[in-house]
Design goal:
The chain is α+β, with helices and mostly antiparallel strands and about 250 residues long. The chain is built from 4 helices and 15 strands. It has a 5-stranded antiparallel beta sheet. Strands 1, 2, 4 and 5 form a 4-stranded antiparallel beta sheet that branches. The two termini are about 30 Å apart. The relative contact order is 0.19.
């Protein structure tokens, strides 16, 4: 069931979203060759708690870390560990923050030092696809317009759009209705209503869109080993558009 958030609930989600944004900015400043993904995880956990939040991913359905850290061909759900980041890697950090019982969810892909042209292009167009999708959001719009525009744009760029993983509603639970796919037919799907809160999150690959799951039963990687990027904002639907809750 899709819930409409009250003004008070949206204010709480803004707080969670702001801490999420600050955590991203802090971790971005730490990313460099030679650090481990576990270091980023531990710093994120400490930062979130120091700012009055709780890491939303820790122990969620058994996930063993406070953030997801997905490197290169890892699409999502990378488990932070002793892996050392190298010059030329890209890393997608997916962060959840809970404050006053309400979640925020945001992901961003960052370069580690200088990256090659393929990875630069992938990150640029995935971020652009996110905002192209967000432009479709307003009270009265069809849900699948978001994914239709993301797919249309990425097809033009000859990039792969992962189909098995989708965005979602956000609120008291990390994952709520509705599902928000990154593909779809324009002018179809449910009607968006003012006060709905959703996470839009294109997961885009440099090659084939096909994916597989590693033996840890969490980390999802591209089938062809090509790099993947992930950009995500939690937003609230407004009368005339949307407001990003995981921004400044």
């Amino acid at each position: 069931m899709v819930s409409i958030k009250t003004k008070e609930e949206i204010e709480k989600m803004k707080k969670a979203g702001h801490v999420n944004y600050l955590t991203h900015q802090y971790l971005k400043s730490l990313i460099k060759p030679g650090i481990t993904t576990k270091y980023l995880n531990d710093e994120a956990d400490k930062f979130i708690r120091e700012h009055g939040g709780i890491p939303g991913f820790l122990n969620y359905e058994g996930f063993p870390a406070s953030i997801c850290a997905s490197v290169n061909e890892e699409v999502v759900h990378g488990i932070p560990d002793d892996r050392v980041l190298k010059e030329g890697d890209i890393i997608s950090l997916d962060i959840g923050v809970v404050i006053d019982g309400f979640h925020s969810d945001s992901a961003w892909t960052y370069p580690v030092g200088k990256v090659n042209a393929e990875k630069q292009r992938l990150m640029h167009h995935t971020e652009k696809a996110l905002f192209i999708g967000l432009k479709e959001i307003h009270d009265g719009a069809h849900l699948y317009n978001i994914g239709a525009r993301i797919l249309e744009y990425c097809n033009k760029q000859k990039l792969g759009v992962v189909r098995e993983l989708v965005g979602h509603g956000v609120g008291r639970d990390l994952h709520e209705d509705p599902d928000v796919p990154n593909y779809g037919k324009y002018n179809t799907g449910m009607i968006l209503k003012e006060g709905m809160v959703i996470a839009v999150e294109p997961m885009i690959t440099a090659g084939s869109r096909h994916i597989c799951v590693l033996d840890n039963d969490w980390t999802i990687v591209t089938e062809d080993g090509r790099p993947s990027a992930h950009f995500e904002h939690t937003v609230v639907v407004t009368k005339d558009g949307y407001e990003i809750l995981t921004g400044e």
